[in-house]
Structures are given as structure tokens and as C-alpha cells.
Amino acid sequence: MAVQPQSAIATADSAGEAVFMFPDVPSGQLWIGTVTIPKAPASAAGTINLGGQPVGPIFGPGVYGPYVTDHTKRFSLSIVGLVPDTQYEAVWHADDEGQKYSTWPGTVTTTVEGTVVIPTPVDVAIVSPLPVPVSGTVDVGNTVTTAPTLAATVQAGQATMSGFVVNLANHAAVQGVVLSAPKTNTDPIEVGGPLVSTTTGFIIEPGEMTPLLPVANSDVLSAIGTSGDVLSFLVT
After folding, report:
1. Does residue 155 surpass a pLDDT of 90?
2. What share of the chain has pLDDT > 70, as a percent?
3. Other CB atoms closer than 10 Å to residue 148's CB: what's the count?
């Protein structure tokens, strides 16, 4: 399915605060995409929520994500620092990819006073008419593809499910956390905040991997699943 931007409109109160509630995801679908408030002032700041649980920060008109959710966890933004009594529109560039996590919307840009803010891409193609210095003679057709930049340290680990809520280990993240479940797991694992349950988290099926979850520390994530199943994580 093509990208389907979803809008949430809210008017800031006299204190410059507002809550943006995006439409519910249809039952049986997972939507994934980046989110932004294009006309928000630089002073704006707040929290991105899934099912009422905070999953990451948002500042000004920047672009954040991608975030993924289904019909059980409504996507919303809690924002302060807006211009009082002013209406704003938040946009979530949602893309239905079922439970494949195979693609998500392309890079979204926001212009702020002449400055273009571009989120870190997964794969960047740089086209330049200038020669590219290389060792020896190599014809690259003026196109260079760069790999994503990782944090200085990468921490990998896993959490073994017990049938109760298990909190991930404390590892600070620069880019975020990627979660995966091995094919040998017997059942899906629900992942979310500290109060995650078998009905409130987002589901990771055996053999699946999430996109990068932009959280500041792996310990903000908790999981619950069948005893003995494993949830692996990579912190970058």
C-alpha cells in the first residue's frame, strides 16, 4: 500500500499546550511511518505516545520515526511550547506493511527559516558532478552510496521471557534500539513501556525484526511473552 499521510489537528490552549490524536489504525493492519508538526515553532517540545505510553521525544518541526502501531495502540503527540490559541496540524506518514516491516516511507524533510532538516537515512545516494577521490582508477558514475552511520559503540543482548513483564537491560542509545525475535520462539512477544501487557504492546512474531526504535535507553522498553522465548536487542 502506498504512503497514506494521516493528519491530527489540535489548537494550543492559553499555555501553548496541545494533544494530537491520529486516526485509529484499521483492525488487522500495522502502520509505520515518520511524524512531524510542520509549522510548529522551534520552542515546541513533547512526547510521542503509542497506546498512551511514551515512546520518544519530539521537538519543533523536526521529523521523527518511523513509528509502528496497530489498532490496539493509538498514535498521539503531547506537545508544549506552541503559540497559544493557535491551530496546528501534525502529519504521520503512515504506510501499511502488515507485519513484514519491509519498507517505510522515504525521507521526509521540513524547512525551518531556510534550513532543511533531514533525518538520518538508511541508505543515501549522493550525486555529484565532481570527481570522487579513490585509490586507483574506479568508475563510479558520480554516484556514491553510503552505509548508515552507527554509534561509537554497539551493544547487543537478549532478554528471556518468563510469562511476566521483563524490562530490557540499561544501555544508553545514540540512534535507538532494534528488537528481534528468533524463529525458534513458540509465540509472539508483546513489547511496550513498563506497563506492557499481552493486550497493550506491539507484537513481534517469531522470526521478525522491528525498525529502529528511536529511544534514548533500552531500559524504557519492556516485554512479555511465553516463558523460555527470547527477545534480542541491538542498541546503537
Report:
1. no
2. 72
3. 12
Burial, 20: exposed, middle or buried (Cβ in 10 Å; 0-12, 13-18, 19+)?
Answer: buried
Q: What is the predicted pLDDT for the residue at 126? A: 38
Task: Output the domain CATH number for residue 185.
Answer: 2.60.120
What CA–CA distance (Å, rounded) separates 54 from 187? 25
pTM of this structure? 0.45
- Which of the listed residues 117, 145, 164 is the one where a domain comes to its end? 117
Half-sphere exposure of 202 (CA within 13 A, CB side): 32
Q: DSSP letter for 219, please.
A: G
Q: According to the model, what pLDDT value does residue 135 have?
A: 54
Query: For residue 95, what is the DSSP state?
Result: E
Weakest-pLDDT range from 9-18, 131-140, 173-182: 131-140
Please tell me the distance from the alpha carbon of residue 184 to that of residue 206, in angstroms, as a whole number: 7
When divided into structural domains, the chain yields a total of 2
Closest residue by Cα to residue 34 from 1, 9, 58, 70: 58
Q: Cell 509549522, residue?
A: 39
Task: Name the E strands within the chain.
Answer: 4-11, 18-21, 31-36, 45-50, 53-59, 64-69, 75-80, 87-96, 110-112, 115-117, 124-127, 143-146, 155-160, 166-167, 177-180, 189-192, 202-204, 222-224, 230-235
Residue 23 sits in the same domain as residue 107: yes
